[in-house]
Structures are given as C-alpha cells and as structure tokens.
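Team,

Forwarding the record for the chain on the shared tracking sheet. I've put the sequence and predicted structure together so nobody has to dig through attachments.
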Amino acid sequence: MAEDLDELYQQVILDHCKTPRNFRALPGASRRGEGYNPLCGDNYTVFVAMDGDRVREATFQGSGCCISKASASLLTDAVKGRTKEEVKALFGQVHDIITTGRVTGDGLGKLAVFAGVHKFPARVKCAILAWHALVAAVDGAETPVTTE
C-alpha cells in the first residue's frame, strides 16, 4: 500500500513538473515575491493578485528542479481564495509536511505529495522555496528571499 501511495505522489509531482499550472507572469499583480536557492540555482517569482486581504490569483515564473517547479505549481492553486493569514498557516503546514513527513490538518489535498521529501534533506529547500516567495509576496516584502 505504501509503495502505491509513493508511486501516486511521484506521478503528481512529475505531472506538475512537466505541465506546471499557472506558469506565467500575472499582469496587474498587486504583489510579487522572489525566491532563490544559491546552492542549486532554483529561482522563482511568485505573482499574487490580492482582493483586500484575500488571494484572488497566484502564478509563478522561473526555473528549477522538478520538485521545486511542482511545489510552485501546486501552491498557485492551493492559495486561491485564501486570506493572508490562511496562506501563512498553510505555509506552516506545508513546511511541516516537507520537513517531517507528517500530514496534519484537513484541506491539504495534493500538497500531501511532499510528505516523502523529508527523506531527502537536500531536496527540502527545493520544495519550500516557492512557499517562502509566496509569503514574501503576501507580506509585500521588497527583497528576494533565499533558502540560506
């Protein structure tokens, strides 16, 4: 059973890597966050259109490994309609999934695919990079974030 789940997770990650969702600039974005991993070169910009305190739309551009691209792709769908505080809470849950493999809470959906990343410490920064950029965007940060 665990092998079947691992295979499903790998398929979801590969799908979002090969065909990333919302992979484009967002004209008229009210905020943007840039993230860079100097160790491997992953580099993403997350664009966010806010309606007050709520994310109306999120997109991303950049380049990186399959895990970082899949993570950015999945986050763009996961945060639509969420408030700034909900985005930050979701970041905490995703960070926990990526670093410990524990999936807690409801409403995580496909984000649970990153539970296996904790087994590969070198990939943790890949999986969380776009999420750091997202938090910087909703906070209105002016400077790029790094994984270091």
